[in-house]
Amino acid sequence: MGQELGKNMENREAIKLTGVKRAVILSSGGIDSTTAMAIAQSEGYELYSLSFRYGQRHHAELLAARRVADFFNVRKHLIINVDLGTIGGSALTDSIDVPKHESVEELSADEIPITYVPARNTIFLSYALAWAEVLKAETIFIGVTAVDYSGYPDCRPEYIAAFEKMANLATKTGVTEQIRMKIQTPLIHLSKSEIIIRGVQLGVDYSMTLSCYDPDESGRSCRRCDSCLHRIRGFKEAGIKDPTIYY
């Protein structure tokens, strides 16, 4: 309790430095990051949206991220070029077929799928940390979940806790104790249906979002990749009509 109180006092000092409560939100244009942005807005943060052109096989997600940024009227939406395609090793950045399935029950919970992009969240969070330090923002929001997800190691609570600790050791604002950086994961213990319900309560229009790993040239979703299957089940379990256009 005392430690948490200390962090809150440090973050209040950060607000004094800037005059506003700022947050950098990692945005892919999907359900999770969009809901995280809605939560940040509901908590009174000034929003700074951060997306990446990282060598992914399609750019439809960046169009979705732009729609989301416009929807929330963010202060700034930054798109950074990081070519992870030169590293490869993932179906999202390499010449590897995106796995397709007939149902979400076919997905293995014990294997890390080939759609995992090596070190992606570490790289993205590092850029978010740098921008947050420049902005004097005290919070980074990332829409990771450890419930309905594809088993990626960089979505786990222990990973986020380790990165937050590192962030406060690695920055000028951290070592001078001007700002105690917080990595917020408001969805970490929520299922996809719970995330959707929370977003709808906050007024999110999910028709502007894209989850598909393999959309067509028109931006329509495939219905059969891991991400599409989790999305379909999420809307079904939430009892909310899925606004996604599938091919």
Itemize the secondary structure elements and their pairings.
Layout lengths: L1 H17 L3 E5 L4 H12 L3 E8 L6 H13 L3 E6 L38 H16 L3 E3 L15 H14 L1 H4 L6 E3 L7 H10 L24 H13 L9
Parallel strand pairs: 1-2, 1-4, 2-3, 4-5
Keywords, separated by commas or semicolons:
alpha/beta, single chain
Detailed description of the structure:
The protein is of the alpha/beta class and 247 residues long. It has a single domain (2-238), classed as Rossmann fold. The protein has eight helices and five strands, in the order αβαβαβαβααβαα. The chain has helices at 2-18, 31-42, 60-72, 120-135, 157-170, 172-175, 192-201, 226-238; strands at 22-26, 46-53, 76-81, 139-141, 182-184. A five-stranded parallel beta sheet has the order 3-2-1-4-5, with helices on both faces. Strand 1, helix 2 and strand 2 (46-53) form a beta-alpha-beta unit. Helix 2 (31-42) packs across helix 7 and helix 7 packs across helix 8 (226-238). The termini are far apart. Mean pLDDT is 90; it is low at 1-11.
